[in-house]
Amino acid sequence: MVPLWWYIVLGVVLFVIGAAGVLLRRNILVVLMSLELLLNSVNINFIAFGRYHADLRGQIFAIFVIAITAAEVAVALGILVALVRNKSTLRVDDVTVMKG
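The chain above was modelled as a monomer; its predicted structure follows.
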């Protein structure tokens, strides 16, 4: 059986990679993928701790996070399509203010 600390290390590594992608990259699509990586690292830790404590709450929280992530992706991609139609760019620096 794989020890718990392997899952924690995997979650931390994925979280650091995702945080670096959010903070350092300028493409909005890369930033969104990095946010997904952050949320997946949290899911790994939820499931690992739930299994360690023989409790289903970790899996339940992970399912809620996945549902919220799916909603976030749907809204974000809709905003990105509208943004590309209006501004023709996906750079974070070029899109500082969204005016209606």
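The mean pLDDT is 89.
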